[in-house]
Each structure stands twice: as C-alpha cells, then as structure tokens.
Amino acid sequence: MSETYFAPYAWLPGGLQRDVRITVSGGQFGTVEGGQTAQPEDRTLAGLTLPGFANAHSHAFHRALRGRTHDNGGTFWTWRERMYAVAARLDPDSYFGLARATFAEMALAGVTSVGEFHYLHHAPGGAPYADPNAMGAAVVHAAAEAGIRITLLDTCYLAGGLGPDGPLPLDEQQRRFGDRDADAWAERFSALMTGGHVQIGAAIHSVRAVPRAQLPTVVGAARGKPLHVHVSEQPAENDQCQRAYGVSPTGLLAAAGALGPLSTAVHATHVSADDITELGGSGTSVASCPTTERDLADGIGPTRMLKDAGSPITLGSDQHAVVDLLEEARGLEMDERLASLHRGRFGIDELVAALTADGQRSLGWTDAGRIEPGARADLTALRLDSPRTAGAQPEQAILAATASDVHTVIVDGRVVVDGGRHLLGDVGRLLTEAIGPLWTD
Q1: Average pLDDT over residues 379-405
Q2: What are the pLDDT digits (tens) for 5-41?
Q3: Mean pLDDT (whole number) for 105-119
Q4: Spatial separation of the C-alpha atoms in residues 413 and 52, rounded to whole Å
Q5: Taking the C-alpha atoms of 384, 387, 393 and 397 in order, what is their torsion angle to the nearest 10 degrees?
Q6: Which domains occur in the chain, in start order?
Q7: Which residues pair with 155 in a beta bridge?
Q8: Hey, which residues are catalytic here?
Q9: Helix, strand, or coil (residue 282)
C-alpha cells in the first residue's frame, strides 16, 4: 500500500526544497518531487522534513546515570566507577526494559538508526548466560519494540587497562564485559544474526581493553562489517599506549588493519596531526559526541581538521546525558567556534550529512539517510512554529530546534512518532520504571 506525504520544506540530496510530495511504498521512497501542490490524499508533515537521524554511538545502559553523576566533580575515571555500578545490576530482562525506553527516547528525538556499542555481555563475575548473547538479544529486541533500526556493535573487551608493561587483567567489575580472548569473542560474535531491523557490526572497546596481539583477530572477524573503536578519548589513553607500545592509539590500530571506510573512530578528541592524517587518509569516520565530551570534560576534538583530512563526521549521544541529536549537531559547530574563535566552521549541509547520511553509512545502512527514490523511507519532521523555532529560516532550523520540536518520525515507512508522541505511549513512565529499580540511593 502506498502512502503520500506533503512537506512544506524538505531536505533533499540537492539541499532544501519547497512543497515536496513524497510517496512511500514497501518501506522505501517512491517518487520525490519538489514544487508540487498538496493533494487531498496527502498527509502534510510539520515544518521541515529531514532524512531520519543516525545515533552513531550509544551505550544504552548509561541512560540510567543521567542526573546522578553530573555534580560531583571528579574525572572520566571516577565517573566510570558509577557506570560500573549500574552495569553490575542489569540482567537480560532489566536491560531490555532500560534499552527499550532509551531507544524510544531516541525515536522521540528523530533517531531512526542507532549504533549500540555493546559490551555488557555476561552475568556478574563473567559467567556466560545459557545463551551467550542473551544481553545482545535483549538490546536488539528493545530496538524492535521502540521502532528503530539497530546496528549491534558487539564489543571485544579483554583487558582491564594498559600499564607500562602491557595489558592489565580485568577487575571484578569488568569481568562480565570480557571473553576469554579474541578467538572466544569471535566465536560468540559469529553467532549473531543480521536481518530486518538489525545489522551486526563489531567494536574494539579501546587499545586499553584489547591487547595489541589480539587486534588482528577482531579485525578479521569484522571484515565487511562496520567496525567501531574508542580512540584517544582521554590524554591518559595516549600516554598509556605510548609507554606500552611506543605508538599512538591511532598508529596501533592502523598497524592492525583496523582503519578504513567501514571503520569509525569514536571521539578522536586528543589525536595528533599524524593521527589526523592517518584517519582521514584511510577514510575512517569519526563519531563526535559533543554532549558527552562536554559532560565528562573530555575536551574539544579537532573535528574540522579531521573532516578536511577525509574523515566523514558522525554524531552520537554516547552516555545520554542528553538524547538530542540536534544538540549534538549544534555542539559540533559551537565547540569549533569556541576552539577556533571563528563562526561557520561547519556548513548546515555538513551538519545535516553528519546527522543523516554519513551517520547511517557508518552503521552499515547505506540505503538510508537520503530522501530520494529507492532509499529507506525514513523521515524526521521538525516543527517550525514552536517557541524555539518560530521565525527561523527553515534552512537554519537545525541550529535552533531541539528534540522537543520533533513532530513526526517515520522508520522504514512506519510512523513511530506522531504529534510528538511515541507509539509506546508515555516514554517518561517507561524510563522511570526501568531506571528506578537500579538505584538504592
């Protein structure tokens, strides 16, 4: 059955167009034509219609930390202890509930695909569940219930850190993240199945968590699939890698064959000029997460230089201090302004690409992120009459709008958010019910 939509303004591959009629059939766009007149059978979309957003970097269980870790000072490393405490309290059932509510919140923010950087694999203490991928299955099921696509980036996590003499053993809190070695991870990884709303990709947690000798095994298992890795999020990571291996994290990954057009370096906040050349020259994407980098005092990364060197830039909400991809896009530009003392570092077309096509591509959804015939029928419609967007020029609306302005979200032709309301109903209630039992203080 075909559906027809009318968009007063729509962002097409050639840029902003007015009065666009869009037909959808079988989960794909059929005709897309600008300069049209709305017909009686059309459903009129609110304000500005964009391709569906891609959240390129997510840790769903971190959503339980929001409002509990922001005012106590400390560092990334002390924040991590609170994160471990939440991880210890989750099982497949509670993880499903938390991930479903978190993904529903993402849908309300215009997200149609999420890259879930998944390392919460086993039971507390490290014993596998009867189904070794029970936690991953819970996350995949959660995305289906929330109505969005997922790329499950199953993460290899083998070491507890990196000392001067090499990798350190996993501590008690980290054991449920780890497999025996990269071969054991690859065996478990090979059992994960792609289909429908899910793709399977791989992740190297970081050079701190996967020893150098194990990296090629992960790269081999991931061949032909998305491969993501935390890179140089903190200066301490660079220092540890240099002391242990005599090379930067980017250099270590390059030597292992982990960089390339199917790879994404997450954060890349503290990369050197040589690292930037290596990442850009290999076509490795960079997932920038401005609200997390801001919250954890990670720093401002050289994203403009990475883009100019050849790295596509994507966006993620990471630890979900905020779930608002429009704020991530705005943060990308505003942080660059602070660092450079210049405005207009990223064009609006570049911010839209980061939100949509480049993010979708980094997650393996190469047929998404564009409103054109044959592409996946993903749409995110923003109000242009809210207190935030009223009076804004449509082409600048993404620099004014927030997630609260998302009116309609369509994923593969299915309406998931309508009038700002998710198909599951009260997402705040779902989050409250999922997060409350995880805390006793």
Answers
A1: 98
A2: 999 999 999 999 999 999 999 999 999 999 999 999 9
A3: 98
A4: 11
A5: -70
A6: 3-51+371-427 (2.30.40.10), 53-362 (3.20.20.140)
A7: 203
A8: 267, 318
A9: helix
